[in-house]
Amino acid sequence: MTSLHTDAVRALTDWQPDGDGQQELRRDYLAHLAAHPDGLWRACLPGHITASALVVDPAEGRVLLTLHPKVGRWLQMGGHCEPGDGTLAAAALREAVEESGIAGLELLAVDGRTAPVKLDRHHVRCLGKDKPENVHLDVQYLAVAPAGARELISEESLDLRWFGWEQLPADTDHSVRDLVARARALV
Q1: Which residues lie across from 56 on neighbouring strands?
Q2: Which stretches of the chain score pLDDT less than 70?
């Protein structure tokens, strides 16, 4: 059985990102994993790999975002890897299903392969207010919602809403806007 660490190295090595910024992030993520056998776990400081997925409904031209309670912004679904996750993609899908309440989500496959859409590095306090900031090295996927999907808010969210491709909330950051633009181009 392949470990999550081995899968993460494979997924990042096989992925062909566009642009110098994404190439640089991929190199940084791979260097992180080479230096940290525990690099996917929350306890790895000052940073660790996380997995997320933007839930999209291509037929309706919309994306599902969660109002994150700690960050106070609209984001894609995602979070920390867990011991039961066999792959990074599985971690992203698990997070998307848990946070959206939508059964039947499927990660978007391009050319028959499920691969990240983009990478994003951001600073957070995921261990509590009194703890120092650390870095999330987020690996982002796309999750396609089945027709007629109905969301169900979880305890991990203040709110959960569908937004049209061009109607994202004003306080949505550049990273989410870039992820949505990439999603729209792929579906």
Answers
A1: 63, 144
A2: 1-2, 125-132
